[in-house]
Amino acid sequence: MALHQTVFLEAAPSFLTDDVFATAEYYRDKLGFSFETFFGDPPSFVILKRNTARLMFRQVPQKARPAARPNHAKFAPTIDAYIWVSDVDALAAEFKERGATILDMPFDSDGGSARRELVVRDNNDYRICFGRVIGWPD
Hints:
By secondary structure, this protein is an alpha/beta fold. It has a single domain (14-62, 73-133), classed as 2,3-Dihydroxybiphenyl 1,2-Dioxygenase, domain 1. It has helices at residues 20-31, 88-98; strands spanning 14-17, 38-39, 45-50, 53-59, 81-84, 101-108, 115-121, 127-133. The chain has a four-stranded mixed β-sheet, covered by helices on one side. It is globular. The model has no long low-confidence stretch (mean pLDDT 90).
């Protein structure tokens, strides 16, 4: 009997934030994400989406602040999330026009042309890398 292989569909990184409303507005206004509602009572959780990419943010109680502990705070050359996109250069132009904080404009990573990447910093100091693997998906 053959084993059925489960197909992974998406992943949604989950981050902590001090202000879920400010975070949702930043991602909407600066990075082009959308959201439908805030969850909880009082509201403290949101799922941000852009196409099939999802990011989740949960606001921590006042006593647990500051919430954000970006990876770069422990090890400088790291990011907090990686999102594959179809066109990094067009996305960079969009982000620049929206006033997003761009740390690294599009570059070919690893010294070659296997990947083209763009790194932004959000309002929580998280680093999000948007990348295009050259030749995938084509």
